[in-house]
Design brief:
Structural class: mainly alpha
Number of helices: 3
Strand content: under 5%
Radius of gyration: 19 Å
Distance between the termini: 78 Å
Largest sheet: none
Keywords: Membrane, Transmembrane, Transmembrane helix
Order of helices and strands: HHH
Protein name: Integral membrane protein
Length: 106
């Protein structure tokens, strides 16, 4: 007995990977953005680590923005926004504590 054409095929991967195709570059950018966002946010809590938090936040914002530009699935976009938010918050707190070059260039 043949299956009707209206049956949906089961997608491989995660819950929101709706097209069932691999997306290695957007997934890599998503992971990098999340990692940099966590790094920027954690190091922003320490005043003397403002160089790490501001640079990690800036690079996280840039990778997240490019990831949003080329993202395909809802999962990628959702986690990129989380990483972008953490990167931006870490960046802004790092800038408030001394900035990208604070104490290095006089």
């Amino acid at each position: 007995m043949a299956q009707p054409q209206t049956m949906r095929t089961k997608t491989a991967g995660s819950l929101f990977a709706t097209d069932g195709k691999p997306h290695p570059l957007p997934d890599a950018l998503m992971v990098v953005t999340l990692a940099l966002g966590v790094l920027a946010l954690v190091t922003a809590g320490f005043h003397h680590l403002h160089l790490v938090s501001s640079w990690a936040g800036l690079v996280g914002i840039l990778t997240g923005a490019y990831g949003q530009f080329i993202s395909v699935t809802t999962r990628e976009r959702t986690l990129l926004i989380v990483g972008l938010g953490a990167s931006a918050l870490g960046f802004y707190l790092g800038m408030a504590h001394g900035g990208l070059f604070g104490g290095v260039i006089n």
